[in-house]
């Protein structure tokens, strides 16, 4: 896990606890959570908070502290987290924590009093379906505790491995991004065929699936892509879509983990341009939710 966010009012009904899994099998050019890409824990460095006290250097037994530039030498760091503990300025943070399903449930149960709002837990990421055994065990615990379960996926998963737990969840948010195969491979990754066939299976077999499309200027909002998304949704008998507006907050995170993701430098949408995109879907009979 790289984060557990409490009291969220997004990503499902009511007040929710969001659990972010680390690790992803896609690599969207516009990823908002670059710290989620790699499944392994890492140390983030916030240069603007660092006062160069170098207490991190005193505790590091691996000589993995750089005196200039990015504070952590990833080639030497074993991600023990000692430097994070030593830093009084919160300039270092451990991103990624190994939990058992039972550990996770103990944390989620702290929020159970708020789930009376119709809320519950939403598994996000990264890509939670990468961990079917863990997710199955955790979802069984949720069922036993009467907790509403949502899951967010980009859809590249093994249906065979994931069906046993998908049959128990109350809500599946399924992202549609780019529908042209070569553009998909370039900007998002391999697996479009699997993604679309999983989407079709869930939609046609009565799963509580809701489709979402992140709107990314020049990437997912082109006429061709919007038309392809409309045609696909119609072909599987689905008439609703959540449109998610792009923001570039993920780009700030690239620096704190010394990530390799390129910064796209895209501007945000105006209200008018968003309305025009929504109108295009609505005209084609796809309701925006
Ligand atoms: S302990 Fe924190 S503030 Fe001090 S040098 Fe290390 S990262 Fe910077
Ligand atoms: S996480 Fe551990 S090994 Fe890595 S830099 Fe910090 S103290 Fe050193």
Summary, kept brief:
The chain is an alpha/beta fold.
Write the topology of this structure.
Elements: E1 3-8, E2 16-20, E3 42-45, H1 55-59, H2 82-86, E4 92-95, H3 101-109, E5 120-124, H4 132-144, E6 148-153, H5 159-166, E7 171-175, H6 181-187, H7 192-204, E8 209-215, H8 223-235, E9 240-245, H9 249-256, H10 271-283, E10 287-288
Parallel strand pairs: 2-5, 5-6, 6-7, 7-8, 8-9, 9-10
Antiparallel strand pairs: 1-2, 3-4
The structure holds iron/sulfur cluster (2 copies).
One iron/sulfur cluster binds next to helix 1.
Task: Please characterize this protein's 3D structure.
By secondary structure, the protein is an alpha/beta fold. It is 33% helix and 17% strand. It is built from 10 helices and 10 strands. The strands form 2 sheets. An 8-stranded mixed beta sheet has the order 1-2-5-6-7-8-9-10, with helices on one face. A two-stranded antiparallel sheet has the order 3-4. The longest helix is centred in the middle third of the chain and has 13 residues, at 132-144. It is globular, with a radius of gyration of 20 Å. The mean pLDDT is 96. Residues 43, 59-60, 62, 64-65, 72, 77-83 line the site of one iron/sulfur cluster.
């Amino acid at each position: 896990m790289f984060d557990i966010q409490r009291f969220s009012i997004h990503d499902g009904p009511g007040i929710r606890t969001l659990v972010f899994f680390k690790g992803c099998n896609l690599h969207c050019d516009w990823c908002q959570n670059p710290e989620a890409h790699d499944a392994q824990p890492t140390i983030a460095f916030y240069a603007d908070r660092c006062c160069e006290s170098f207490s991190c250097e005193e505790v590091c037994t691996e000589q993995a502290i750089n005196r200039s530039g990015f504070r952590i030498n990833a080639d030497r760091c074993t991600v023990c987290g000692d430097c994070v503990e030593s830093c009084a300025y919160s300039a270092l943070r451990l991103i990624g924590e190994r939990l058992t399903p039972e550990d996770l449930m103990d944390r989620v149960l702290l929020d159970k009093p708020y789930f009376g709002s119709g809320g519950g837990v939403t598994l996000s990421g990264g890509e939670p379906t990468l961990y079917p055994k863990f997710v199955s065990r955790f979802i069984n615990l949720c069922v036993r505790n009467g907790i509403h379960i949502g899951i967010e996926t980009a859809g590249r998963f093994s249906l065979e491995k994931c069906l046993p737990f998908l049959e128990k969840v109350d809500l599946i948010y399924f992202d549609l991004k780019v529908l042209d195969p070569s553009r998909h491979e370039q900007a998002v990754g391999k697996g479009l065929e699997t993604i679309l066939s999983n989407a079709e299976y869930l939609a046609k077999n009565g799963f509580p699936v809701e489709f979402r499309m992140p709107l990314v200027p020049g990437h997912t909002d082109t006429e061709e892509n919007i038309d392809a998304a409309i045609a696909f949704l119609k072909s599987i008998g689905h008439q609703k879509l959540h449109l998610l507006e792009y923001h570039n907050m993920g780009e700030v995170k690239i620096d704190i983990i010394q990530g390799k993701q390129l910064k796209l430098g895209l501007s945000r949408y105006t209200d008018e341009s968003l309305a025009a995109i929504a109108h295009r879907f609505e005209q084609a009979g796809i309701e925006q939710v």
